[in-house]
Write a structure and sequence with these properties.
about 130 residues; single chain; alpha+beta; two-stranded antiparallel sheet; 7 strands; 5-stranded mixed β-sheet; DUF1636; 2 helices; DUF1636 domain-containing protein
Length: about 130
């Protein structure tokens, strides 16, 4: 069972100025590209590539997110849907190899060095108390 997830917003526009390309949303194109490229990917059994209806990054299409148990979740936008799939899978390998989900900006593929939209720490484990401020 996969322990890491790559979430792909299937509703994202093709670009900030173009909703569809060839009758489909940009997020759908990106999802299809990722699924096709991942068929022979070495981490195929470790990652689930999951479509989501919306990641609420509508002004920053295309948007994706990485999440795993006990790791920081990362969300990226501004990804070209027809040119990003190899870089996304490369970053997936870096995310998988990291202990905490953090990959230094300068180590990421170029298309993922910018456009980070969120960095969400993992929830506390059962031993930690949630403190109110």
């Amino acid at each position: 069972m996969a322990k890491h997830a790559l979430l792909v917003c299937k509703s994202c526009n093709f670009s900030p100025t173009q909703r569809d390309y060839m009758g489909e949303r940009g997020g759908w194109h990106l999802l299809k590209q990722l699924l096709s490229l991942s068929e022979k990917w070495s981490l195929q059994s470790e990652f689930v590539i999951q479509e989501v209806d919306c990641l609420s990054a509508c002004k920053r299409p295309c948007a994706i997110a990485f999440t795993a148990l006990n790791k920081t979740s990362l969300m990226f936008g501004d990804l070209p849907p027809l040119e990003s799939e190899a870089a996304i899978l490369q970053f997936s390998e870096q995310y998988y190899a990291s202990n905490n989900g953090i990959v230094a900006r300068h180590e990421r593929p170029e298309v993922l060095q910018k456009g980070i939209l969120a960095r969400i720490p993992p929830p506390p484990d059962g031993d930690d108390e949630i403190k109110s401020g």
